[in-house]
Specification:
It contains 9 helices and 6 strands. It is an alpha/beta fold and 246 residues long. The protein has one domain: 3-Layer(aba) Sandwich (Undecaprenyl pyrophosphate synthetase). The longest helix is centred in the middle third of the chain and has 24 residues. The chain is globular. The structure holds 3-methylbut-3-enyl trihydrogen diphosphate (2 copies) and magnesium ion (MG). One 3-methylbut-3-enyl trihydrogen diphosphate (IPE) binds next to α2.
């Protein structure tokens, strides 16, 4: 039986998040510049997005550029920003054909104006789509997000809109970039690295983690389906005992 046939449609992760890693190493293996790997990586973005829509995962979040990635060589950063603009232009069709709504999280104001405009345009054009929400994490860092959240809540406390004792998990969640998204159920990282790299720290509190050695440009639908089957065979206890769940 193929991995796809083994997927139980009633036990799908509602929110799948992916750390798309390994573009640079993939390119190096071919004796090419790192940027070649980023270009190839966009094909995997399309394939995985379509695969998620196909099996009806409602929320997919892709880590595309971190706050720390600004520290990469200037030319690589410039290429990544150009690639963002060209991919948005090109993939609007994929989004419309698959009824996917685009969303973005992160310090978006740090992006070049051109990328901000393109992003706004695609978000606006796809805002009525309702099969799946694709969220791109761009200039995203979880610590930046939590810091901003604390600043906003502090302002509200100072202006007597909230009292300190009223601050609870729900209020914090409502101030995160991910306020419209449920908690992450499954987090996949490609390329063999086993770390979180400042991605969705609050939101992955109870996520299942899945690491694979496949480099992002080589990541296919079948690899994704394999990860989902693996996820579905785990017991998510949320602190309870196994007996309590059955
Ligand atoms: C992921 O691939 C893409 C981004 C972080 C933008 P990398 O560029 O990190 O590739 P490796 O990890 O160096 O192979
Ligand atoms: C994490 O990958 C960020 C993205 C995939 C966008 P990195 O390649 O930047 O992570 P580290 O620095 O190796 O942890
Ligand atoms: Mg990397």
């Amino acid at each position: 039986m193929s991995f796809k046939d083994q997927i139980d449609p009633k036990k799908l992760p509602q929110h799948l998040a992916v750390i798309m890693d390994g573009n640079g190493r993939w390119a190096k293996q071919q004796g090419k510049f790192r940027t070649f790997g980023h270009e190839k990586g966009t094909k995997a973005v399309r394939e995985i997005t379509e695969a998620c829509a196909e099996i009806n995962i409602p929320y997919l979040t892709l880590y595309a550029f971190s706050t720390e990635n600004w520290n990469r060589p200037r030319l690589e950063v410039e290429l990544l920003m150009k690639l963002l603009v060209s991919s948005l232009k090109k993939e609007i069709k994929t989004l419309q054909d698959n009824n996917i709504k685009l969303n973005a999280i992160g310090n978006l104001e740090a992006l070049p104006k051109k990328a901000q405009r393109e992003l706004e345009e695609v978000i606006d054009k796809t805002k009525e789509n309702n099969r799946m929400m694709l969220t791109l994490a761009l200039s995203y860092g979880s610590r930046e997000e939590i810091t901003k959240t604390i600043q906003e809540i502090s302002h509200k406390v100072k202006n007597n809109l909230i009292s300190p004792g009223d601050i609870d998990e729900e209020i914090i969640q409502k101030h995160l970039y991910t306020q419209n998204l449920p908690d992450v159920d499954l987090l996949i990282r490609t390329s063999g690295e086993q770390r979180i790299s400042n991605f969705l720290l609050w939101q992955i509190a109870y996520a299942e983690l899945y690491f694979t050695d496949i480099l992002w440009p080589d990541y296919t639908k079948n690899h994704l389906f394999e990860a989902i089957v693996n996820y579905q065979n785990r017991e998510r206890r949320f602190g309870k005992t196994s007996e309590q769940l059955s």
